[in-house]
Write a structure and sequence with these properties.
The protein is globular and about 65 Å long. Helix 2 packs parallel to helix 21, helix 12 runs parallel beside helix 14 and helix 21 crosses helix 23. The two termini are 34 Å apart. By secondary structure, it is α+β, with helices and mostly antiparallel strands. It has a domain of 231 residues: 4-Layer Sandwich (Aldehyde Ferredoxin Oxidoreductase,  A, domain 1), CATH 3.60.9. The chain binds iron/sulfur cluster (SF4).
Length: 607
């Protein structure tokens, strides 16, 4: 058994397989790399950020900006939800006020990551840029993976779904990571996403990817002229031991995954269920994060929508949490009809309630178009909400097609234009659009990344999220849950709790498993024979997060970047039923106190 406790560390004995694809020369090398520390051992964004920290990149679309495809230590193992793939690079979207790109990662489940690991590859680094469109084919072989670049002209302008289906018809029993038209049109769309195939998609022919959406990693892939990656391996026939069976049962039935399970399985019904508690407090984003007194959030409650549509909980490979709440037409006899879209809280809210649309059928249409072109629904929805808000505030000088809140047809046109790369006003994201129009006060972003579906009035922790507001700082639901507005509470929430939510952006399991550290280290030992203590896990996660803050400092992010939209202070919304506590003074004190902790740590690990 390998023991890597810090008193007897032997990281070098633990190795991983790294594939470096030089797109300029079309050469591919596979290296066996010894781990240097626990971040390397766990994998995910931690390992990728170490690579990014060694690069000087001043433009996201430049040949020296790598795209790193990583797996975690548990990706492809028998732990339930061990399916994650991470895509990391300097982002075209996350940008400091000095104009430098920020490091980012985004993650997806599905089955692509597992298949990649079963090929014998843990990490792919794409360097340079291909002259013509290519697809990387990674194939399992007895003597190690066989990896080739194949020409991909015939896949241009296919949607993510169409690319996957076309590839599936040619490459049997494989899984795929692909971009859509948005990523191909990277110059005019900075929030292209990467779609990872699921078994359900393969079997049903429905558009059911899992998305690595945040930060424009699909646009980076488009810049590099990589249309897709094929992971070509056979599924291993692993027998689960008693401990792993019990662990998986706990993941499926325990408190961590409760929110995401169906009600009949003791759950709350998925992320969509946020509509109810947040709606009661009138803090579901509406009309560009400014809910009016008349609460329209209830119109999108699941119970309401189930009158007319069929909702089916579906899942990634072997995951019994089944968090995908897929919406189907309901036929006259009540049976399941055509698949429409997946309703998660963020895409649903930002492409319906927050743009003044309160109709499930229209919301499903907009979500499916967003998916079709392969865009991040958060960045897209928030930038469109800004356009609609701008048009309300500037009635005599409206922009684009003059769309207003609730204007479904015009919004639909804007989404299609953006996906096709024909609307760079929206495609470059809300930071750039608002700066070009010199009206930044109602642009809902922090550090260039559009906000997820939680009002900035409820979450000062957004400032320290290193890779998107609800994926890398777990403070977004705290005001609704605890109602605490004291500065001590928020300092602790950020520096001592919130940052640990990035743990599973290292390990390879899904955040929705919400496994406690004790069970996680037991699982790691069972599945990999690597012994890590709970405190080492915490320290490693913290180090990886701090490195993320250091990378922000390296790329010029300073006090002027760590700000909430001005409207939070200048136009308080009295319709919210939560305590109003975010003032300029509160944020300034919070920044000083949080910085005291983080600055010391940044200085310590990143000299
Ligand atoms: S919880 Fe959801 S996203 Fe995560 S592995 Fe399971 S089905 Fe996939």
């Amino acid at each position: 058994m390998k023991n890597i406790h810090s008193d007897s560390s032997n990281f070098e004995a633990i190795k991983y397989q790294q594939c470096v694809v030089n797109l300029d020369s079309a050469t591919i090398k596979i290296h066996e790399i010894s781990c240097k520390n626990l971040e390397d051992v766990l994998g995910g964004f931690g390992r990728a950020y170490r690579i990014l920290s060694e690069r000087n990149v001043d433009t996201a679309y430049s040949k020296n900006n790598p795209l790193i495809v990583s797996t975690g230590l548990l990706t492809g193992t028998s732990i339930m939800t061990g399916l994650r793939t991470y895509f990391s690079s300097y982002s075209p979207l996350k940008t400091s006020n000095k104009g430098l790109p920020g490091a980012m990662w985004s993650a997806a489940s599905g089955k692509f990551g597992s298949k990649l690991r079963w090929c014998g590859i843990d990490e792919i680094i794409f360097e340079g840029r291909s002259e013509s469109p290519v697809i990387l084919h990674v194939k399992q072989n007895d003597d190690g993976a066989v990896i080739n670049l194949i020409p991909a002209e015939q896949y241009i302008r296919l949607s993510c779904h169409e690319k996957i289906i076309a590839l599936r018809n040619k490459f049997d029993d494989c899984h795929f990571a692909v971009i859509g038209e948005a990523g191909e049109n990277y110059e005019n769309c900075y929030f292209g996403a990467i779609g990872c195939s699921t078994e359900n998609l393969m079997k049903s022919d429905d558009d059911k990817c899992r998305w690595a959406g945040r930060g424009g990693m699909g646009s980076i892939m488009g810049y590099k002229n990589i249309l897709g990656i094929i992971a070509d391996s056979r599924d291993p026939k692993n027998k689960l031991n008693k401990q792993i069976k019990e662990l998986n049962k706990f993941i499926t039935t325990g408190p961590g995954s409760r929110k995401y399970r169906e009600i009949k399985k003791g759950g709350l019904g998925g992320t969509w269920s946020n509509y109810e508690p947040l709606g009661k407090l009138n803090i579901v984003p509406e009309n560009n994060f400014r809910p009016p007194a008349k609460n329209n959030a209830k119109l999108m409650l699941r119970e309401h929508i189930e009158n007319d549509f069929l909702v089916k909980a579906e899942n990634c490979y072997r995951c019994a949490i089944a968090c995908h709440k897929n919406i189907y037409e309901k036929d006259i006899d009540g049976s399941r009809g055509k698949f429409l879209a997946k309703f998660d809280y963020e895409p649903l809210n930002l492409l319906s309630t927050n743009i003044g649309i309160h109709d499930a059928s229209k919301a499903a249409d907009l979500i499916s178009i967003c998916d079709k072109y392969g865009m991040d629904s958060i960045s897209l929805g928030v930038t469109i909400a800004y356009v609609l808000d701008y048009n309300v505030r500037n009635p005599k000088a409206t922009i684009l097609n003059g769309a207003q809140f609730g204007d479904f047809d015009k919004v639909r046109d804007l989404i299609i234009d953006t996906g096709k790369g024909q609307c760079h006003f929206i495609g470059l994201g809300v930071k750039r659009l608002s700066e070009s129009l010199q009206q930044t006060n109602f642009a809902m972003h922090v550090k260039g990344l559009e906000l997820p579906s939680y009002l900035p009035e409820t979450n000062p922790g957004y400032l320290w999220a290193i890779a998107g507001g609800h994926m890398s700082m777990q403070t977004y639901g705290l005001l609704a849950a605890d109602g605490n507005t004291s500065i001590d509470y928020w300092v602790e929430a950020i520096v001592d709790k919130g940052l640990y939510m990035v743990r599973d952006d290292l390990t390879g399991i899904c955040k929705f498993a919400n496994l406690d550290n004790k069970r996680l280290v037991d699982g790691i030992e069972q599945l990999t024979e690597i012994t890590i203590s709970e405190s080492e896990i915490r320290e490693t996660v913290r180090n990886a997060f701090i490195r993320g803050l250091w990378l922000e400092r390296k790329q010029g992010f300073d006090n002027t970047d760590y700000v909430l939209p001005d409207d939070v202070y200048d136009r308080p919304n009295s319709n919210l039923k939560t305590a109003s506590f975010i003032t300029i003074e509160f944020i300034e004190e919070l920044k000083q106190r949080v910085s005291k902790y983080f600055d010391i740590e940044v200085d310590k690990i990143c000299v």
